[in-house]
Structures are given as structure tokens and as C-alpha cells.
Design goal:
Number of domains: 4
Shape: elongated
Strand content: 5-15%
Oligomer: single chain
Largest sheet: 5 strands, antiparallel
Number of strands: 10
Radius of gyration: 30 Å
């Protein structure tokens, strides 16, 4: 149940005409009164339609609602005296009866401070239903005893009442808000987007574009350059001294009735997109290292591979370290990493190949709500994640094939666990909305992984199937030795042969498969993953610095010599089963 207080108005009759009218797209069906301050109030919806009688009842209802205004002096009377609340149920909720909606209306006006049934005093109000799933409540902000209604925190009070009603009426229970969410589009913005055929409102499009522009940026100049490159119109607000105070952005094709661009301030897009909050992200990135936390160590990539594949490997290492920080670090440092994880998601979505782009974009869109809470982030400690986001952007789009595609699957797998850790962290802090948003993002990441993984996993699977039977039995013994509790589950998974091929490569470079496997498993739980063997494949390949793409490794890793015995690596050696050319 979603109660929403709309902007106050000055024309009672205008809102009544809308509530009893056909709607903007003929969507209003059977408009009628379900409750009011007085049982004898006229209901224009039950008058014969298109007749003078209905018009008379609308005028009569308006006059009755506005009568208390005459008791107030000009100084007491508010210009915006029309209070408007809509209460809407979700698409999966059952349809309430008129009597149930009437009870909802009475409790909502009491919770808001519009009416006070205990004292028998309050404002005049009506509740109109013109659809199955919602009602509108209109009230005149003038009490008959001359006192003004107490509307301080009316939005918070009706939200709290909605949570109680959801349980009593058996509706879907929503999470309570904490005032850290981005501002939702207004109904006018949604209707305008529908008329223009937009999938999202301009406010939402701008929020996503600005969020992606800030991912990994290290200066004001770079941030505004990215906004301009994205095609946005920009207005900067400066002080007389020349210092930058704020900014506004607009879409080139979003105009008002006068043909002028509709600008939105950064703070109106999301709380963390105001200029001061964006500048906070740059703190600690001038080469100094914050003290008191190991996560703040200078970021040194494990792999120097160039291009998108190298950026993805470095981002995978940074994301994995962030998981450990979120689980074991202080709240302020964890909050910084949680915010920076959103930048990695935005960068990954921006540079993703076509077959994963939609799900990664949806993951970033959902995670945006999880990136903010009342826990103040201690910036600077998240430098590795922000650098990873910058590397992803600067490396350019991935092709989705070969090492690019394989490292994308590896990174998505790791970011899935990062976002899952964020959901658990918010859950422990009782941040219900943020935890739910992180879980939604994790589901989109799971879908993105299913799109990214088949190619590279199929190549590894093929190589694992080609291993000699003694080799397969030996690596199965390694699994039973390292992971006795879940070994049999792993050995029957579709990904087992890919894991066997990876263990063969680990052995070929002179490392202990059982030891590395045990370390990979103990680094974090794997139960939330769809395939344990898939998770272990990517962890082993990252920990052993193996190429993510199987075609970049030896044709038959089981016959390769350890790297320590010579100058050549397994990827440089020709297979022994073939004569060297």
C-alpha cells in the first residue's frame, strides 16, 4: 500500500472535476464516494451522468468542503488550502471492497492530522474511488473550530499507518522508508513520459546518466566533460567569487510548454548526486592513503593485461577485497565500499556487450537504492573500487568474446557476491529498503551471468571432458580431499568438467590443486550461487592468475611442465601430444 501526498492546491472544484471525470486517458471507471467527513455529503458519482444534476452536486460538494474557510480571516486562510492524498495498492494485492477502502480513508486522515475522531474536530474531507486499486482523499485545510490542522510529518505518519493496514488487510508488506531514497517522478512527469513514449521519465533518465558519469571520476572537469559527452544540457551555479556551487542538467528533447529545456538540479535527482556529495568522492584520491584500515592500501593490479579484459581482472580483485571489507570492516568504511560498488556496476553496464547490457543496466538501476543509507561513508578507503570503475570506463566496451567475455563472466560472478554481501550488511543494520534493492540487483546479476558464462564455461567443459580418465579421477580426489562436505554435489554438477580443467591448469603451473581449492572455498560461502563449481572455477583462475579464456591456455594442461622449471609458461608450450614445429 503506497500513500502519496501530492502538492497542495488552491481550487477544490478543479480537483473534484478530475476525480469524478473520465481521467487523462479514460481510465477512471465508476467514480464514487466511499467515505467523507459527513455521511450526508452528496456523491456526484451516483448522480445521472452528463446531466445538470451531476454538475449541481459537484458545486454543492465543493461549497460544503470550503465552508470552514469563511470562518478564517484573510491572514489565517491559506492560499494553498487543498490537501490531496492518493492511496494505491500493488498489482499483486487483492481488490478491496468499498467498505474496506472507506476504513482505510478514515484511518489515513486521522493519521495525517486532517481529522481527529476522538475530539470530534477536524477538516472536511472526501475519499473518491475511480479504480479498483486506489482511492483519492481531498481535504480542505481549515477546521470548523478555527484551529489549523497539525500536518507536521504527515507523510511519515500516513506511511506508518499504511504498514499497519497492510498486515491487517493481508496485503503485500512494503519496507519502511528512511528518507535516503531518490525523489520519485511526479504523476505529471509519468504522464508526460507516457505521452512521449519514453520507457522512463526524464528525471530517471538523467539520474542514470549522471550516476554513470560520476563513476570513477576524479575531478570536476572530468565529471562535467562526461555529462557533456553524454549529450546533456548543463547549467552551473557559481558564487560571486567564481566558486562552483551546484549544477543542473536537462535532456535535449525534454521541453516545457514554452519550448524551454526542463532542468533538474543534481540534488533533486538523488541525495548523493548533489555537487558537494560528488566532490566528497574525490577525497583521499590525491595519492594519500587514509590510516587505520588495511583496505586503504595503494591499489596495485595483479594483472597487467591491457584493454577491457585487463580492466575486468583488476576490477574482480578489487571487488573481492571489497567483499572482505564489507563483512569485517567498520561501518563507515563498509558504507564507502557499498557506495563505490555502485560505480563499478554503472561502469560495467556502460561497457558491457549487447547480450549482457540490459541485465547489467537493470542491476545498476536497482542497486542505486542500496548505495545510500544514514551511515556516513568514510571516503578514501574505497579508492580501489573507484579506480576499478575508472579503469572499466577508460578501457572501453568489451566485445563479449574470448578473454573479454570470460573476464566479464568472472567479474559478474564476483560482483554478485559483492552485492549479496551488501544485502546481508544492510539486513544486519535493519535497512529494509536497501537490503531489498541489493537482492533485486543480485537477481539481475545472476541473469547477466547466465548470459555471459555459457561460452567460456563451454570451452572449459570441453577441455575437462578431454582429460584422461586417470587425470579426472585424480582431480575428483582433490575435490574430496579439500571439500569433503560438498564434494559429491560438485562432482555431479554440469560445471564439474570445467573445474577439472582448471585444477589441471593449477597443477600444471606447480601449485597444489587441493590446497588452492580449499583456500578458494574458505574465502567466502558459495551457497548463494547457482553452481558451486562455476564459482570455484573463477576463484581458482583469479587466485592462480590463469587466463579466464580457456583458449588462451595450453591445449592440454595436464601435460604442461610447472612454470618454475623453465622460462616458458604453460601458455607458451606446445602440447606434447603433437610434434613441435
Amino acid at each position: 500500500m503506497i500513500p502519496r501526498i501530492h502538492k497542495r492546491g488552491s481550487r477544490t472544484v478543479g480537483l473534484l472535476y478530475y476525480l469524478y471525470g473520465p481521467g487523462d486517458a479514460e481510465e477512471h471507471v465508476d467514480p464514487h464516494l466511499v467515505a467523507s467527513w459527513d455521511h450526508s455529503a452528496p456523491d456526484p458519482g451516483r448522480a445521472p451522468h452528463a446531466t445538470h444534476k451531476q454538475f449541481q452536486q459537484l458545486q454543492q460538494l465543493q461549497q460544503l468542503l470550503d465552508q470552514p474557510l469563511a470562518l478564517l480571516s484573510d491572514k489565517q486562510r491559506k492560499k494553498k488550502h487543498v490537501w490531496h492524498l492518493s492511496v494505491r495498492n500493488g498489482p499483486t494485492d487483492r481488490i478491496l471492497t468499498d467498505d474496506e477502502w472507506a476504513d482505510v480513508a478514515r484511518r489515513m486522515v486521522a493519521a495525517a492530522g486532517i481529522d481527529d475522531p476522538d475530539q470530534g474536530a477536524g477538516c472536511r474531507w472526501v475519499a473518491v474511488r475511480h479504480a479498483d486499486d486506489h482511492i483519492h482523499i481531498l481535504a480542505t485545510l481549515a477546521r470548523e473550530d478555527g484551529y489549523r490542522p497539525d500536518l507536521d510529518s504527515d507523510a511519515a505518519r500516513v506511511q506508518a499507518e499504511a504498514r499497519v493496514l497492510e498486515k491487517e488487510l493481508g496485503l503485500r508488506c512494503l519496507n519502511p522508508g528512511d528518507k535516503t531514497a531518490a525523489k520519485r517522478p511526479t504523476s505529471a512527469e509519468r504522464h508526460k513520459a507516457d505521452r512521449q513514449g519514453r520507457e522512463r521519465t526524464p528525471r530517471e533518465e538523467l539520474r542514470e546518466t549522471v550516476r554513470r558519469a560520476v563513476a570513477g571520476t576524479t575531478s570536476e572537469t572530468e565529471f562535467f566533460d562526461r555529462l557533456a559527452a553524454a549529450g546533456l544540457l548543463i547549467r552551473k551555479r557559481t558564487a560571486p567569487s567564481g566558486d562552483l556551487l551546484g549544477y543542473k542538467v536537462a535532456l535535449t528533447d525534454d521541453r516545457n510548454k514554452d519550448g524551454e529545456p526542463v532542468f533538474y538540479a543534481g540534488s533533486s535527482l538523488a541525495p548523493d548526486l548533489s555537487l558537494p556529495r560528488i566532490l566528497e568522492r574525490f577525497s583521499g584520491e590525491n595519492g594519500t592513503v587514509p590510516t587505520g584500515d588495511a583496505s586503504a592500501a595503494p591499489y596495485t593490479p595483479r594483472s597487467a593485461a591491457p584493454g577491457p579484459a585487463g580492466a575486468r581482472r583488476r576490477a574482480t580483485s578489487a571487488a573481492w577485497q571489497a567483499v572482505l571489507v564489507i563483512e569485517h570492516g567498520s561501518a563507515a568504511v563498509a558504507a564507502a565500499h557499498i557506495a563505490a560498488a555502485g560505480e563499478v556496476l554503472d561502469a560495467l553496464a556502460t561497457t558491457s556487450a549487447a547480450h549482457t547490457r540490459r541485465q547489467l543496466s537493470e542491476a545498476a538501476f536497482a542497486y542505486e537504492r542500496a548505495s545510500r543509507s544514514h551511515v556516513r561513508a568514510e571516503r578514501g578507503h574505497n579508492r580501489a573500487l573507484r579506480q576499478a570503475a575508472a579503469d572499466l570506463i577508460r578501457s572501453g566496451p568489451a566485445l563479449g568474446r574470448g578473454e573479454d567475455g570470460a573476464t566479464t563472466a568472472m567479474l559478474i560472478d564476483t560482483v554478485f557476491f559483492l552485492v549479496t554481501a551488501v544485502a546481508h550488511w544492510h539486513g544486519r543494520k535493519e535497512h529494509a529498503q536497501q537490503a531489498d534493492a541489493a537482492r533485486q540487483a543480485a537477481e539481475h546479476l545472476r541473469a547477466a551471468y547466465r548470459a555471459a558464462a555459457p561460452g567460456p564455461m563451454a570451452a572449459l567443459h570441453h577441455r575437462g571432458r578431454r582429460l584422461a580418465r586417470p587425470q579426472q579421477r585424480k582431480h575428483a580426489a582433490h575435490v574430496r580431499q579439500a571439500l569433503p562436505d560438498i564434494a559429491e554435489q560438485i562432482l555431479v554438477e554440469p560445471g564439474w568438467h570445467a573445474l577439472a580443467a582448471t585444477l589441471a591448469e593449477v597443477e600444471a603451473i606447480g601449485q597444489s590443486p587441493a590446497e588452492l581449492l580449499e583456500r578458494a572455498y574458505r574465502r567466502r560461502e558459495v551457497e548463494t550461487a547457482g553452481s558451486v563449481s562455476d564459482v570455484l572455477v573463477w576463484r581458482l583462475r583469479r587466485m592462480a592468475d590463469l587466463p579466464a579464456d580457456a583458449t588462451a591456455s595450453t591445449e592440454n594442461p595436464s601435460t604442461a611442465r610447472p612454470a618454475s622449471r623453465g622460462t616458458r609458461t604453460p601458455t607458451q608450450r606446445a602440447p606434447r601430444s603433437r610434434p613441435a614445429r
